[in-house]
Amino acid sequence: MNEIINQHRELSLFELHRIRSALSDFLDDSVKNAAIKKFLRVGQEINYFCDDANDLITGTIIDIRRTTVKMQIKDWQTIVVPFCMLNLDDIDTDIKHDNVDKTTLKVRDRVGFVKDGIELYGVVTKLSTKTASLLVNARQKWRVSYKLLFYVIDGHKRHLRLV
């Protein structure tokens, strides 16, 4: 997956749009959706890729529809997920490259940044187009540009940068 992403970084917006349009047709393929539906069972625990968290979320199937499943993801929360978001083959969804950006960062990742010469550490709570929202010291909310962030192993104990 990393190779595919890296190959497309230099494409124009139009080229990317055209690819998205073609991929949309592939995602609606009735034969592929029918094959996935045969694999699914009510009560099955399964992962789906959540765009907002940029991570896999585990849930339990409570209803199977034509091209979607209804899942319980917490004791009280349900969500309808298209088949194309289900990670049936346990595919590694991490995108790896040297820079911290929206494609590599996940909600709940520990990161740091420097403000006025002082290193601050926090946990990602939300990913936006240009910034990540962080909770620093369990009470301060910050919005920080991805370019200013670095990964940390443990922001409370060691203050070590992840290499």
Model description:
The strands form 2 sheets. The chain has a 5-stranded antiparallel sheet, with no helix packed on it. The chain folds into 2 domains: 2-29 and 40-85, SH3 type barrels (Roll), CATH 2.30.30; 98-163, SH3 type barrels. It is of the alpha+beta class and 163 residues long. It has helices spanning 2-8, 13-27, 30-39; strands spanning 45-50, 55-64, 68-72, 78-82, 110-115, 118-127, 131-136, 140-145, 150-151. The radius of gyration is 19 Å and the shape is globular. It contains 3 helices and 9 strands; from the N terminus they run αααβββββββββ. Helices cover 20% and strands 34% of the residues. It starts with a helix and ends in a 12-residue tail after the last strand. Mean pLDDT is 88; it is low at 155-163. A hairpin with a 3-residue loop joins β7 and β8.
Largest sheet: 5 strands, antiparallel
How far is the N terminus from the C terminus? 22 Å
Query: How many β-strand runs?
Result: 9
The radius of gyration is: 19 Å
- CATH architecture name of the largest domain: Roll
Low-pLDDT stretches: 155-163
Structural class: alpha+beta
The CATH class label of the largest domain is Mainly Beta
Tally of alpha and pi helices: 3
> How are the strands ordered across the major sheet?
8-7-6-5-9
Principal-axis shape? globular
Q: State the CATH topology of the largest domain.
A: SH3 type barrels
Helical proportion? 10-25%
User: How many domains make up the 3D coordinates?
Assistant: 2
Percent of residues in beta strands?
25-35%
